[in-house]
Amino acid sequence: MKEGYVVGEESRNSGGCSPLLKGIIIGGVTASVVVGLAFFLVTLTKAEYSTEKDVSCIRDEMKEMCCRISALEKIAKDWECECEKMKQKLAEAEQEDCDKAEEQQQELEATAAAASEAAETVARAKRAALTLETPRTYPADNRQTERVKDK
């Protein structure tokens, strides 16, 4: 120690605080800073964990949405296939209807031709019947002859 140095002077030279009080103050400030820093780090870690958790949840939700979108795409593709099948069936049915209509038209034409032929045959038969029943006369002697019989 310095000569002539007293404890009271030391107090005055150190700003009015004893070394013990100074140590307590410095220790308290240091402890407060450490506790504050620890609290900050814990909060930051929680925030990072929370953010990471949020990001993880968002990723999971995105995966789920991707799965749903894939499922919807599959459903849409299935519907497109069903639509194409229905269009094909409709085209086949229309073709069958067209073929049936054409077949019926041919049958109708054949029936009409047969009816025309039958009408012509009936007309010929009537003419033949009239010819058979009408007595024949010969122009030279204007005599009536026997009726012509069916051969």
Walkthrough of the structure:
It is rod-shaped and about 170 Å long. The relative contact order is 0.03. It contains two helices and no strands. It has a domain at 18-114. It is an all-alpha fold. It has helices at 7-13, 19-133.
Q: In terms of topology, how is this protein built?
A:
Layout: H1 7-13, H2 19-133
Search tags:
single chain, 151 residues, mainly alpha, 2 helices, transmembrane helix, transmembrane, coiled coil, membrane
What can be said about the biggest beta sheet? none
What does the overall shape look like?
A: rod-shaped
User: What is the helix/strand order?
Assistant: HH
Radius of gyration: 61 Å
Give the rounded overall mean pLDDT.
79
Amount of beta strand = under 5%
Report the structural category: mainly alpha
Given the structure, what is the number of helices? 2
Uncertain regions: pLDDT < 50 for 5+ in a row?
none
Helical content class: over 70%
Coiled coil: 69-121
Keywords: Coiled coil, Membrane, Transmembrane, Transmembrane helix
Transmembrane segments: 20-44
